[in-house]
C-alpha cells in the first residue's frame, strides 16, 4: 500500500549530548542513537496515552530500481509478510492482531516502511517480530508466484482502471527522462509479468540491512528501556555493504512537453507540471523551496484559495482544481496544478484559466495579509498533527529518509514563517515558465456498459 505524503516537518528543540554505549543525542522528548551495526534509532516520548508506534524505515524505494525490474521494492514489501523460519506465512499479521495491535507497510519512491501500533506493554513482542524478518525472511517460488499475481491485480485496479492514475503515470514518464521517478512505484506491468522470485530475494539481500534502516518509536515509552530492547533484538544483526547509489541526474528540459491519454472517464482533465528545486539537506536555508510550498498554499491551501475561488466558484470552469508541491524528497521535484474540467469546457479554456490565475501572482504578487494567514494555518496544521503518535513517527521518518535529520525541524518551521510575499512572487515568476513545463491531458472516452445476460 502507499500513503500520499505532503511532508512539512516542524517543532523540536535544540540538541544536547548523552553518554551511551551507542552514540546518542537527545532533546527534551526526542532521543537518537546509532547502534554499532549502523542502525539508527529515534525515540520520541509522548505520554498522553499508553500506546506506542513502532516503525522500521528502509532507505530503498522505486528511486533505487532499474529498467526491467521496476516495482520490485513494492513486491518485496508484500513478500515481507510471507514468514521466516520462526513465523509461518500470514502469521505476522495474526500475531500483531492477537496483541490488540494494527500493522501495515507502504512503499514510496524514496523508501519502504513497516509499522505496528500497540499498547505499550506489547512493544517487545512486535519489535521481536520485525527484527526477525529484517534478517530471516524466507519465501519459496510458489509463495512469490501467488503474490505477484496479487500485485498485478492491484496495478489493474489502482492504475489501469483508474483514469487519474493513468494520467499521473504518463505525466511522470513524460516529465522525466533519466530520473527513476519516471517509473511508477508499483512498476510497469511487463516488468511485473517477468519478475522472478530471485529478483525479490536480491532486493532483500541488497537493501534490508541495519545500516540501511531507521527504527522510529513514538509514544508512552521510557527511552532507556526502549533502547535496551532495540539493542537486544536488532543489535545482533550484522551490517553489510550496500550497493553503490549512482546519481541519475535529470537533463535540463528545454521546451514544453505534452502527453495525451485516452481512457474511460466522466470528464476531461488537464495537469501542468513545472520542474522546480527541492530542499537540499546541505542547503536547508535556501528560501526558494519554502516559497514554492507557500505558493502552492496560496493557490490551493484552503477552500477560498485562488484556484478554487476563481476557476470553480467564479467562472465555473472546473469541478475540482488543486496545486501540489513536495519540497522533501530524494529525487527531483515538480510543481503541479491539476484541473477536472466542468461539463462543456475545453482544455484550451482550462489552460488559459490556470495561466490567468498564475499571472496574477507573477504580475501583482501576494498580499502580506494573505500570506500571513496561510503561514498561520500551516503552523496550526503542524500542531494538530501532534495529536497523532503515528503521525509524529511518519513526519520524522519521511524527513530522515530524504537525508535530513529530525534536528533540522525547527529550522524548517522558522524558515517557512520568515518567507515574504516578494519571495513567493519571485519563485512563481522564475520557475513557472514554459521551458520546464510538462502538460498531461486526459481525453475522456465513453465507458463500456456491462452486458447482463437474461436467463430464460
UniProtKB/TrEMBL annotation:
What start-end ranges are recorded for coiled-coil regions in this protein?
A: none
So which residues are the signal peptide here? 1-21
SUPFAM superfamilies assigned: LuxS/MPP-like metallohydrolase
Instruction: List, separated by semicolons, the cofactors it needs.
Output: Zn(2+)
Q: Which residues form the Peptidase M16 C-terminal domain?
A: 196-378
Q: Does the keyword Endoplasmic reticulum apply?
A: no
Q: Which Pfam families match?
A: Peptidase_M16 (PF00675), Peptidase_M16_C (PF05193)
Query: From which domain of life does this come?
Result: Bacteria
Boundaries of each Peptidase M16 N-terminal domain copy? Answer: 42-186
Classification via InterPro entries: Metalloenz_LuxS/M16, Pept_M16_N, Pept_M16_Zn_BS, Peptidase_M16, Peptidase_M16_C
The answer to keyword Phosphoprotein applying to this record is no
UniProt KW keywords: Hydrolase, Metal-binding, Metalloprotease, Protease, Signal, Zinc
Protein family? Belongs to the peptidase M16 family.
Name of the protein this chain belongs to: Insulinase family protein
Protein source organism: Polynucleobacter paneuropaeus
Amino acid at each position: 500500500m502507499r500513503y500520499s505524503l505532503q511532508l512539512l516537518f516542524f517543532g523540536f528543540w535544540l540538541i544536547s549530548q548523552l553518554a551511551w554505549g551507542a552514540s546518542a543525542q537527545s532533546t527534551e522528548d526526542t532521543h537518537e542513537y546509532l547502534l554499532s551495526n549502523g542502525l539508527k534509532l529515534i525515540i520520541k516520548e509522548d505520554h498522553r496515552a499508553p500506546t506506542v508506534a513502532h516503525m522500521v524505515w528502509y532507505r530503498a524505494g522505486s528511486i533505487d530500481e532499474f529498467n526491467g525490474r521496476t516495482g520490485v521494492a513494492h513486491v518485496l514489501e508484500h513478500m515481507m509478510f510471507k514468514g521466516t523460519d520462526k513465523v509461518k506465512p500470514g502469521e505476522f499479521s495474526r500475531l500483531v492482531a492477537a496483541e490488540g495491535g494494527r500493522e501495515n507497510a507502504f512503499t514510496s519512491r524514496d523508501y519502504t516502511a513497516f509499522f505496528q501500533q500497540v499498547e505499550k506493554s506489547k512493544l517487545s513482542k512486535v519489535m521481536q517480530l520485525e527484527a526477525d524478518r529484517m534478517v530471516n525472511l524466507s519465501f519459496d517460488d510458489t509463495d512469490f508466484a501467488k503474490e505477484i499475481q496479487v500485485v498485478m491485480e492491484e496495478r489493474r485496479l489502482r492504475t489501469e482502471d483508474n483514469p487519474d492514475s493513468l494520467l499521473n503515470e504518463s505525466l511522470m514518464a513524460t516529465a522525466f527522462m533519466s530520473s527513476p521517478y519516471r517509473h511508477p512505484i508499483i512498476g510497469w506491468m511487463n516488468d511485473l509479468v517477468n519478475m522472478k522470485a530471485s529478483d525479490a530475494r536480491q532486493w532483500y539481500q541488497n537493501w534490508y540491512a541495519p545500516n540501511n534502516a531507521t527504527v522510529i518509536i513514538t509514544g508512552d515509552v521510557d527511552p532507556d528501556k526502549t533502547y535496551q530492547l532495540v539493542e537486544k533484538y536488532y543489535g545482533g544483526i550484522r551490517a553489510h555493504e550496500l550497493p553503490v547509489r549512482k546519481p541519475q541526474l535529470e537533463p535540463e528540459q528545454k521546451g514544453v512537453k505534452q502527453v495525451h491519454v485516452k481512457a474511460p472517464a466522466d470528464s476531461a482533465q488537464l495537469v501542468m507540471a513545472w520542474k522546480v528545486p527541492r530542499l537540499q539537506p546541505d542547503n536547508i536555508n535556501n528560501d526558494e523551496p519554502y516559497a514554492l510550498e507557500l505558493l502552492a498554499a496560496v493557490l490551493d491551501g484552503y477552500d477560498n484559495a485562488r484556484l478554487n475561488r476563481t476557476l470553480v466558484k467564479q467562472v465555473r470552469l472546473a469541478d475540482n482544481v488543486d496545486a501540489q508541491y513536495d519540497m522533501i524528497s530524494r529525487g527531483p521535484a515538480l510543481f503541479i496544478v491539476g484541473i477536472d474540467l466542468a461539463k462543456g469546457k475545453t482544455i484550451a479554456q482550462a489552460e488559459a484559466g490556470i495561466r490567468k490565475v498564475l499571472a496574477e501572482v507573477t504580475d501583482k504578487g501576494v498580499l502580506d495579509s494573505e500570506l500571513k494567514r496561510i503561514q498561520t494555518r500551516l503552523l496550526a496544521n503542524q500542531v494538530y498533527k501532534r495529536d497523532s503518535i503515528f503521525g509524529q513517527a511518519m513526519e520524522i521518518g519521511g524527513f530522515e529518509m530524504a537525508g535530513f535529520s529530525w534536528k533540522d525541524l525547527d529550522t524548517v518551521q522558522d524558515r517557512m514563517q520568515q518567507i515574504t510575499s516578494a519571495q513567493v512572487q519571485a519563485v512563481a515568476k522564475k520557475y513557472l515558465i514554459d521551458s520546464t513545463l510538462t502538460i498531461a491531458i486526459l481525453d475522456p472516452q465513453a465507458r463500456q456498459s456491462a452486458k447482463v445476460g437474461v436467463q430464460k
